[in-house]
Amino acid sequence: MPDHDLVILGAGPFGLAAAAHLRAVKGLDVCVFGDPMISWIRHMPAGMFLRSNLVASEIASPTGALTLQAFDPENADKLPNHLPIKQFIQYGLWYQTQAVPDIDRRKIQSVEPGTSGFRIVLDSGESITSRRFIVAGGLGPFAFRPPEYANLPPELATHTSDHSTFKPFSGKQVVIVGCGQSGLESAALLHENGAQVEVIGRENHIHWLFGWGSRTLHQGLGKTVRNFFYAPTDVGPAGISQLLARPDLLRQLPRSIQDRLLKRATRTAGARWLVDRLTNVPITLGRTVSTVGTVGGKVRLRLNDGSERTADHLLLATGYHIDIAKYTFLAPQLLASIKRQNGFPVLQPGLESSVPGLHFLGAPAIWSFGPILLFISGTGYASRSLVRRISAGR
Ligand SMILES: Cc1cc2nc3c(=O)[nH]c(=O)nc-3n(C[C@H](O)[C@H](O)[C@H](O)COP(=O)(O)OP(=O)(O)OC[C@H]3O[C@@H](n4cnc5c(N)ncnc54)[C@H](O)[C@@H]3O)c2cc1C
């Protein structure tokens, strides 16, 4: 008999929402491991705003009670459409104390197939067993550092996910490679923290996003028309947003169309509310870095137009490449038996992998269930789908 019915790895939005929903199912013993909201606390910069709108920034809860309004009832009618990260972290930690107060903060070192489920080894050396194992491990290990920068020391080059503040860059020259949301928002924050910044992007132009809750859109379209074209999940362009909000329907489409929609919904883009904050930040588009080196304790880049840049620091806003092989806690024999496509697990209803009882939530699930699984607004679908599968299989 395993020690637990279910073990969840992860206490970010997906792990917390899944735990809250599964604990509402009578008789299930659910154990949760992780550091609550740690990706938001350690790997995103202070001063950041959520790109998702208010409705889409709510972590799903089984009765719908754990809302942003319930978290801060006194200010419920003053909540901004895009939350500051500090407020979202406080909300996430409040959600955790309400729904999953007994999180085990030990790290899971490895998970491997067991006699009736999984054997889980903790960093304390202890091991436990569970009938099912749910991975909600987030994006952290997938941070993409292009190989051409591998030889630069961390004092000279870092990934955006390495920073929780840009204060130390005050007075420094920083070049950012990448002009998606992360690169553009980092540029605004660095500029506001007193750094001299330039953004270099390979794209020829920046896609600025309106989004479901934007004021321009709100004024331009009536609420009914807007709600017709945009789902509350706030992912994807008009019309397509409604389809992406329904992963079970999306999955019925031919693979080539699913791939195109996934690419479209996750393309490099910036929130329109960044435009004013970037007025005084040079953005060089349509350029790539040809060579990189160091000179006098600085980093030197040569671009494909022959121009050069020398800076105190290079910030890689080069995004994330999802590949579950980078989840080092998956023991080799378990990893080998997971059916995968380009690094993504191929998932069935209930977000269950080809290994019965092993589920993946969040970013790794986007190949099978579409881009909402990358965002907080996907926590509702993921948790309900998980509950349906687990309730049916008991
Ligand atoms: C810069 C940036 C901005 C973003 N902005 C938005 C936004 O505005 N709106 C939006 O919807 N989404 C946004 N996202 C996407 C965001 O990452 C996801 O919405 C959300 O955080 C994913 O939650 P998660 O639960 O999957 O993972 P995470 O929040 O990353 O949580 C991972 C959890 O796994 C735990 N863990 C990992 N390994 C182990 C282990 N070995 N043992 C035990 N525990 C472990 C960690 O402790 C942590 O608790 C943004 C992402 C980035 C990078």
Secondary structure elements and their pairing?
Layout: E1 4-9, H1 13-23, E2 30-33, H2 38-42, H3 68-71, H4 85-99, E3 108-114, E4 117-122, E5 127-135, E6 157-159, E7 173-177, H5 181-192, E8 196-200, E9 208-209, H6 215-220, H7 223-229, H8 240-244, H9 247-250, H10 255-265, E10 270-271, E11 283-284, E12 289-295, E13 298-303, E14 308-311, E15 313-316, H11 332-336, E16 340-341, E17 344-345, E18 358-360, H12 366-369, H13 379-392
This protein binds flavin-adenine dinucleotide (FAD).
Strand content: 15-25%
Shape: globular
In terms of per-residue confidence, which ranges show pLDDT below 50 for 5 or more consecutive residues?
A: none
Domain count:
2
Q: State the CATH class of the largest domain.
A: Alpha Beta
Q: What is the CATH superfamily label of the largest domain?
A: FAD/NAD(P)-binding domain
SS-based structural class? alpha/beta
Helix amount, in percent?
25-40%
Q: Could you name the CATH topology of the largest domain?
A: FAD/NAD(P)-binding domain
Alpha-carbon distance between the termini?
14 Å
Give the biggest beta sheet: 6 strands, mixed
Cα Rg: 22 Å
CATH-derived architecture of the largest domain: 3-Layer(bba) Sandwich
Describe it for me?
Helix content is 26%, strand content 20%. It is α/β, with parallel strands linked by helices and 394 residues long. It folds into two domains: 4-142 and 321-392, FAD/NAD(P)-binding domain (3-Layer(bba) Sandwich); 147-206 and 269-316, FAD/NAD(P)-binding domain (3-Layer(bba) Sandwich). The strands form five sheets. Strands 1, 2, 3, 4, 5 and 18 form a six-stranded mixed beta sheet that branches. Helix 1 (13-23) packs parallel to helix 4 and helix 1 runs parallel beside helix 13. The chain is globular, with a radius of gyration of 22 Å. The two termini are 14 Å apart. The structure holds flavin-adenine dinucleotide. Flavin-adenine dinucleotide (FAD) binds at residues 9-15, 33-35, 38-39, 44, 50-52, 57, 107-108, 136-140, 182, 329, 362, 374-377.
